Amino acid sequence: MNKKGFTLVELLAVISLLGIVGLISIPIISNTLKNSSKNAFKQTLNSIIDAGKNYNAENNYENFPTDGIDITDNTIQYENKSQIISGKIYYKDRKYYVEKVRTNKFCGSGYMGYYIIYQGDCESGIVLEDKRK
Fold first, then answer.
1. DSSP-H helix ranges across 59-93
2. Predicted model pTM
3. H or E segment and range at residue 22
4. Across-strand partners of 119?
């Protein structure tokens, strides 16, 4: 007798192994996607600070507004501007600070490389990363 096909036990073993692989890989993929979104937001914060430096250099380092620059207007240009809902950049103590920069997912404040990043709102969001000194 010449049988073709797989037995029920073989099929169950394969399905079980695929399920285990799926259970292991889904959290890893989910975490990777979350971290990539957060890292993209940090890059946007760095881009805003670079734009503030350029603005200051173009104006001969004079008269950077003491009340900061609203980053949603066209005073400074930076990457991913369309994703930003609100925020300001300040220049004080020879450093550039961003404050309450918001997108749909994140909110952040701080200065180059030393940010606090929230998921959601700056006042009530969940702290994802705090690298302030």
1. none
2. 0.72
3. helix 8-58
4. 106, 126
